[in-house]
Amino acid sequence: MFEGWIVLCSVRQRMGSLQLMEKETVTDKGTVMEKEILKVRETVMEAFPAFSKKLDTLDQLLERNKLFAEGTLLDAKMAAVESGVEARKALEEGQWPVAVVVCCSDSRVPPEVIFQVGLGKLFVVRTAGNRADADAILGSVQYAVCHLKTPLVMVLGHSSCGAMKAAIGAAKGEFPEEVRC
């Protein structure tokens, strides 16, 4: 289920867009990062020094995901602090998420769990197949970026995604039995 994660992060500039693509393969031996990713990171950090903070946030989330995929859960005390009574009271004043995550509605892959973060850390927009094409979805992302000043946007997919399999099948003219007329 956790093989072949693809994380996309894009930074929009007035004169165009920059996309940083990260591909990690989770295996029994841990995470293998392709060397090209490091070159892209260096290039991006040289061109956009302010982007380094976003890369730090991305690195932290990916490290927490790696630990989760390996079966290493973060300290229970940390989890209690991040989601405890005091954290919930602080969130009554507002939210300051570190990332927007557009992801699949699949109940087996909740971002807060796979990234091992507490309440208020992620602004999550879930849709079947992690598609970001509807106005409501794009509006939610825009709200988080423009109003909440969330610095990082990720599109999170997962392997064995039923919605993506159905979409690919439909493009080939193959429809599930329930949809056929």
UniProtKB/TrEMBL annotation:
Species this chain originates from: Rhodosorus marinus
Function: Reversible hydration of carbon dioxide.
Taxonomic superkingdom: Eukaryota
Database matches in InterPro entries: Carbonic_anhydrase (IPR001765), Carbonic_anhydrase_CS (IPR015892), Carbonic_anhydrase_sf (IPR036874)
GO molecular function annotation: carbonate dehydratase activity; zinc ion binding
Binding site for Zn(2+): C104, D106, H158, C161
E.C. no: 4.2.1.1
Short name of any one Pfam family annotated for the protein: Pro_CA
SMART domains: Pro_CA (SM00947)
Keywords: Lyase, Metal-binding, Zinc
Record field: catalytic activity: hydrogencarbonate + H(+) = CO2 + H2O
Keyword Zinc found: yes
Keyword ATP-binding included in the entry's annotation: no
Protein name: Carbonic anhydrase
Cofactor binding description: Binds 1 zinc ion per subunit.
An individual GO BP term: carbon utilization
